[in-house]
Write a structure and sequence with these properties.
The complex is a heterodimer of chains A (113) and B (114).
Chain A: E1 5-7, E2 10-13, E3 19-24, E4 31-37, E5 44-50, E6 53-56, E7 65-68, E8 75-79, E9 88-95, E10 103-104, E11 108-112
Parallel strand pairs in A: 2-11
Antiparallel strand pairs in A: 1-3, 3-8, 4-5, 4-9, 5-6, 7-8, 9-10, 9-11
Chain B: E1 3-5, E2 10-14, E3 19-21, E4 24-26, E5 33-38, E6 44-50, E7 56-58, E8 64-68, E9 73-78, E10 87-94, E11 102-104, E12 108-113
Classes of the chains: A mainly beta (113), B mainly beta (114).
Chain lengths: 113, 114
């Protein structure tokens, strides 16, 4: 079956611009997670959705970052006024429930010039 | 504090030899432990997990991991390495405070030489 998909696969933007990163989870998975991964490091938790609501957004680094999941399926991570330090691979994962393993998408590589 | 350590940045193994990728953890309570693999330009793929039960857990692609409570370790193993096993391997433990967040190790690069 189809796995988690993320678009775009690569995004290059200029400092100060706004970007949106999209995640399509596995159908039927209620839990959705966003992570950020820098080179040579493990994923860093950003936000967790259970259904439509953000159950935990404690990992979002600041108020420039925001994520939505309006219908409990597709999620969009939004970054305002991007900074060079936002450059990383943004990973999305989904799972049938919180006690299950997480299935990851291929990631979106964001480069802020 | 809860943490996961992968003490080796890189592990080199000859094809056909057994491999071990080390992971130690520090959590309060009973840990839920995971191994994931990341191939270049691809997402993290789940390999195996330990929740409870047998200490030896078998997973995908012939990998297995042994949970050792006294040593707080969850080393990943494979009896005979393949060149195609070359990838980045991550150990993770579920954060018992949140019940869903994973605490990740920094990763170990596994290189299998023909």
């Amino acid at each position: 079956g189809a796995g988690v998909s993320q678009t775009p696969s690569n995004k290059v933007t200029e400092k100060g611009k706004y970007v949106e990163l999209r995640c399509d989870p596995i159908s039927g998975h209620t839990a959705l997670y966003w992570y950020r991964q820098s080179l040579g490091q493990g994923p860093e938790f950003l936000i967790y959705f259970q259904g439509t609501g953000a159950a935990d957004d404690s990992g979002l680094p600041n108020d420039r970052f925001f994520a939505v999941r309006p219908e409990g399926s597709v999620s969009t991570l939004k970054i305002q006024r991007t900074e060079r330090g936002d450059s990383a691979v943004y990973l999305c994962a989904s799972s049938p429930g919180v006690n299950n393993e997480q299935f990851f998408g291929p990631g979106t590589r964001l480069t802020v010039l | 504090a809860q943490s996961v350590a992968q003490p080796e940045d890189q592990v080199n193994v000859a094809e056909g030899n057994p491999l071990t990728v080390k992971c130690t953890y520090s959590v309060s309570g009973n840990p839920y432990l995971f191994w994931y693999v990341q191939y270049p330009n691809r997402g993290l793929q789940f390999l195996l997990k330990y929740i409870t039960g047998d200490n030896l857990v078998k997973g995908s692609y012939g990998f297995e991991a042994e949970f050792n409570k006294s040593q707080t370790s969850f080393h990943l193993k494979k009896p005979s390495a393949l060149v195609s096993d070359s990838a980045l391997y991550f150990c993770a433990v579920r954060d018992m405070r949140s019940n869903y967040q994973l605490i990740w190790g920094a990763g170990t690069k596994l290189i299998i030489k023909p």
